[in-house]
Amino acid sequence: MLTLTTTEGLAAFCERAKSAPYVTVDTEFLRERTYYSKLCLVQLAVPGDTEEDAVLVDPLAKSMALDPLYELFRDENVVKVFHAARQDLEIFFIEGGVIPKPLFDTQVAAMVAGFGEQVGYETLVRKIAHAPLDKSSRFTDWSRRPLTDAQKTYALADVTHLRVIYEFLAAELDKSGRLDWVEEELGVLSDPATYVVEPDRAWQRVKTRTNSGRFLSIVRELAKFREIYAQTRNIPRSRVIKDDALLELASTRPATLEDLGRSRLLLREARKGDIADGILLAISEGMQTPADAQPKPDRSRDKMQVNPALADLLRVLLKAKSENLGVAQKLIASSADLDEIAAGRRDAKSLSGWRHKAFGQDALLLCEGRLGLRAKGQSVEVFEI
Prior knowledge:
The chain has 385 residues and is of the alpha/beta class. It is 46% helix and 11% strand. It folds into three domains: 2-195, Ribonuclease H-like superfamily/Ribonuclease H (Nucleotidyltransferase, domain 5), CATH 3.30.420; 199-293, HRDC domain (DNA polymerase, domain 1); 308-384, DNA polymerase, domain 1. The mean pLDDT is 95.
């Protein structure tokens, strides 16, 4: 097993990879104790069956810089293949300011090709590569050196089997004419905005059912403080304030350290020092936010007049189309999408792009009374009226 520990070694491999049609990529990282992922290992493979065709890259080695890899990522003649790429891409964007192009995600491709919703890598290895996969090293500490042979074998398997999976899925999608479906889905993963968390918008990640502008103002200020504090100190958000404690604080609105000490959910470390001061200031600023500057909850769904019978018919249609196409239902349309369509809205995600062809156009015909559904054995038949 070839492990690259120098920039020169990585550059030589990447130069070779530039003449290949694709390179498979995976990473091992740690994030339990940090805000940003700590990259511990990069696995790369190009088509072939020699030892030099699949390598481990040690980013923790003193003589290693990943610039040659980032250069390869920018080479649009080589497809970069990942499985469930989001976290890997976030690491490379934060570390190197680059998003690999062109991109192929086998998890997305498998959903389009009929392997179910968010299918795991192990399942694809078993069903496509027809090989076992040893996951015993999955939760090991990848920052420790030296790596064991078991860790190296596990890590390499994540890119060697991926070659077989990619070639199979790419051929299937080419045959079915759905490669552009996958490319459309990868638009979000290829967008740098996906990996940037703006502190001012961090509150939108906090789930709350309260629509009070004052309450949401405090949530916004607390979430903003938490995000900035976690980013600057590179610690997880949960070590500053957990979501349940944040919502409790927005409700109880403590004004002093003594008040803060009465919180049931706040971590002990957050009841004093910089965190406590930041919390009290954030609550004060949230309380003082003028009405016209308070967050406005999206009440559009509250005003929707959903036709429940039509929504049920749309669900039956979705199931029928999903089974016929072999595409995961949740990838085509969410339950919220169906409710929006049944309420007369026409801006649902499932009515545009490849989804329009797969489901949306029939959904609109159903809404107009121009499409019918009938049972046929164990399945549902769709027919035009």
